[in-house]
């Protein structure tokens, strides 16, 4: 009998078929007899999820309507159905499976691929079929053929399916119950919006909200440092005293103690130079590639995953949904054998430092389902490279350059630490001199990269002229997240996210979501209008604020709780946990929400009313057209005569201060507001001012 190979989607099936002689049929591909498949084989495909969970009303008619009295939605068993518009392809798969005794799961080698395969297979009703698993990291013909020759049993695959199914059902339960609970309770408060709740997406929104609250609550404070500008025989340099005083007086007292005036003689007491090395960066996982691409080109995480999936299907890179930064000796062997050819692709020749594997990159113990993202054995022609879209080429080269760096020398530099004394008070200076660019020559220098100041040639006991100043600076608020930082934020639950370069910290933490799902979660919260992204900066929306005000204090706002759930889900995938235990925990969590949320929302206070197109609360007569009324809509205040040409509008937030309907009323009726506290300037300073309306535009009066 011909085995049936089930791929996840048509493009994947086509890539498999290219490794054999084959003929395209309607909904499947027929493989001709081959040493691997002596009788031939059939390749068919899903179209993503062909099978999905049924809607609540399929279990009980009372769950068809949104009602607090009907909650909780907790079915005893879970039922699945064929997704709308996909019945024809499902029918083809079912017919082929019933004609064979062997079915090969050739969906993506991850939890989701396992879920797609088994949800389709079980829904066909097939029984007693031999199931095998194709486990590959590349779609190159020789890797595909090798994979089909070395098919695995389905033991690990079944565990991954149990994990993915538990995740799917838990997300469905939290979404169905949480979304109805919060939407209905907020509706009672006059907020007519649907608030989608998610097991992972909601705590993710809350982390962004917390960062924005930190920024808004931040009050800049001055601090004082003593800085010296020194003139030596061969040039100028600067140094600082080890002091960061909150009061200027403290710095003044230190200078007085040493009898130091504005201009003094000094002496270089120590010049210590140390050679330092920076090894090549680790290979890319999906999250490190998403972070790098966002820093360099402002690509969203979802775009990076989409482009990388395309490059994978073009057989240029290995499987992209990976969370490891290591490879095995097998991958290292083919990379080392082709280094010179890879160099030619990007015209970057350099002497190979070593072709011996290093534990920093090659460690089988740290490779589980997939290895790091690396170029495949395929060496693309110049024509193929030229045919890539700009974003494809950028990402392919990023992977290629990071892989080549593994064979390059360390970056070497000399770090010089200078101590300059002025009347017994030491000033410290650090300078850096590049000795050997090494692997860094493969990468363009980032515009944001901080350069250490270069120092003139100095010698110990050299006299210098000095000019001493007290320098006043202001503390700066935390920075808002960029879209690329959201991935690291989710992975670390908000901790240490600023240090995106130091991926070592990410290894111990499970975080929110998985490598494969995080970019999709970010897209979901954007689609639900909880966050907005402008010039790569992430902001919470008014709708997002109301959601976060509502969930504050319960487990939905707890990233650590969600991270613990993710940890347990991974235990299911390893055979160390039970899906039944996990779903029972989710059921208890939902009941706890139903019991506690109504009172909790009262305690949290009534959130400001969210303006929607249906909720047109009239604030005042429009000061421009004198016909329409100014009403509150999502994100701004506008005139009801907008469609007839009146362009009067007011922002909901001005200089990081949310404007109330009362303040807008003052502007419309009196032309100015009372003093408003808490505006934030571009340099992070808070200030108070009145707003004035002049020619339809906002101005400030101090």
TrEMBL record:
List the Pfam families. Answer: Topoisom_bac, Toprim, Toprim_Crpt
Question: Per the database record, which ranges form the Topo IA-type catalytic domain?
Answer: 157-594
Taxonomy, superkingdom:
Bacteria
Q: Which reaction does it catalyse?
A: ATP-independent breakage of single-stranded DNA, followed by passage and rejoining
Q: Which SUPFAM superfamilies match?
A: Prokaryotic type I DNA topoisomerase
Which keywords describe this protein according to UniProt? Answer: DNA-binding, Isomerase, Magnesium, Metal-binding, Topoisomerase
SMART domains reported for this sequence: TOP1Ac (SM00437), TOP1Bc (SM00436), TOPRIM (SM00493)
The EC number of this protein is 5.6.2.1
Q: Which family does it belong to?
A: Belongs to the type IA topoisomerase family.
Q: Which NCBIfam families match?
A: PRK07726.1, topB
Name this polypeptide is given: DNA topoisomerase
Source organism per entry reads Planococcus donghaensis
Lineage in the entry? Bacteria, Bacillati, Bacillota, Bacilli, Bacillales
């Amino acid at each position: 009998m011909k085995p049936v190979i089930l791929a996840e989607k048509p493009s994947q099936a086509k890539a498999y078929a290219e490794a054999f002689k084959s003929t395209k049929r309607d909904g499947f591909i027929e493989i001709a007899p081959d040493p691997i498949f002596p009788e031939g084989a059939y390749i068919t495909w899903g179209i993503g999820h062909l099978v999905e969970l049924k809607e609540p009303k399929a279990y009980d008619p009372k769950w068809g309507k949104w009602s607090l009295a009907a909650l909780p939605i907790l079915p005893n068993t879970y039922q699945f159905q064929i997704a709308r518009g996909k019945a024809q392809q499902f029918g083809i798969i079912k017919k082929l499976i019933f004609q064979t005794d062997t079915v090969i799961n050739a969906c993506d080698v991850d939890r989701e691929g396992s879920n797609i395969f088994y949800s389709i297979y079980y829904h066909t009703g097939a029984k007693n079929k031999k199931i095998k698993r194709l486990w590959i990291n590349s779609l190159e013909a020789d890797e595909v053929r090798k994979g089909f020759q070395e098919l695995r049993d389905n033991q690990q695959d079944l565990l991954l399916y149990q994990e993915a199914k538990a995740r799917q059902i838990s997300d469905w339960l939290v979404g169905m119950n949480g979304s109805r609970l919060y939407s209905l309770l907020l509706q009672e408060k006059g907020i007519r919006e649907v608030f989608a709740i998610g097991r992972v997406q909601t705590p993710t929104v809350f982390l962004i909200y917390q960062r924005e609250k930190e920024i808004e609550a931040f009050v800049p404070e001055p601090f004082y440092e003593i800085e010296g500008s020194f003139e030596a025989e061969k040039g100028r340099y600067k140094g600082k005293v080890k002091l960061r005083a909150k009061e200027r007086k403290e710095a003044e007292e230190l200078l007085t103690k040493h009898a130091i005036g504005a201009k003094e003689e000094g002496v270089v007491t120590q010049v210590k130079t140390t050679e330092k090395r920076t090894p090549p960066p680790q290979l890319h996982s999906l999250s490190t590639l998403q972070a790098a691409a966002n820093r360099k080109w402002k690509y969203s995480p979802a775009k990076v995953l989409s482009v990388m999936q395309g490059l994978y299907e073009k057989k240029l890179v290995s499987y992209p949904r990976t969370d490891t930064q290591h490879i095995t000796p097998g991958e290292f062997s083919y990379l080392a054998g082709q280094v010179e050819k890879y160099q030619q692709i990007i015209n970057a020749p350099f002497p190979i430092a070593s072709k011996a594997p290093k534990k920093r990159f090659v460690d089988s113990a740290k490779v589980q389902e997939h290895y790091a993202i690396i170029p495949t054995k395929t060496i693309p022609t110049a024509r193929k490279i030229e045919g890539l879209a700009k974003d494809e080429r950028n990402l392919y080269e990023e992977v290629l350059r990071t892989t080549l760096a593994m064979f390059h020398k360390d970056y070497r530099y000399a770090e010089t630490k200078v101590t300059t004394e002025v009347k017994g008070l030491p000033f410290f200076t650090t300078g850096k001199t590049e000795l050997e660019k090494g692997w860094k020559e493969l990468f363009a220098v980032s515009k944001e990269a901080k350069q250490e100041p270069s120092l003139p040639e100095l010698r110990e006991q050299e006299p210098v002229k000095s000019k001493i100043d007290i320098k006043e600076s202001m503390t700066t608020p935390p920075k808002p997240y960029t879209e690329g930082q959201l991935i690291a934020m989710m992975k670390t639950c908000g901790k240490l996210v600023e240090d995106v370069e130091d991926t070592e910290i990410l290894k111990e933490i499970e975080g929110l979501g998985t490598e494969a799902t995080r970019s999709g979660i970010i897209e979901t919260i954007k689609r639900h209008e909880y966050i907005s992204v402008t010039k790569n900066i992430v902001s919470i929306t008014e709708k997002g604020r109301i959601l976060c005000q509502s969930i504050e204090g319960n487990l939905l706002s707890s990233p650590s709780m969600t991270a613990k759930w993710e940890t347990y889900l991974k235990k299911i995938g390893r055979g160390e946990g039970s899906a039944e235990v996990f779903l029972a925990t989710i059921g208890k969590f939902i009941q706890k929400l139903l019991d506690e949320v109504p009172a909790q929302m009262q305690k949290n206070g009534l959130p400001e009313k969210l303006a929607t197109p249906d909720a047109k609360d009239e604030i005042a007569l429009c000061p421009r057209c004198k016909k329409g009324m100014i009403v509150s809509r999502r994100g701004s205040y506008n005139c009801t005569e907008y469609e007839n040409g009146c362009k009067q509008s007011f922002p909901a937030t001005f200089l990081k201060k949310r404007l109330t309907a009362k303040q807008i009323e003052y502007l419309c009726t009196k032309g100015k507001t009372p003093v408003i506290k808490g505006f934030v300037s571009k340099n992070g300073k808070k200030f108070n001012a009145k707003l004035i309306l002049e020619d339809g535009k906002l101005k400030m009066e101090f």
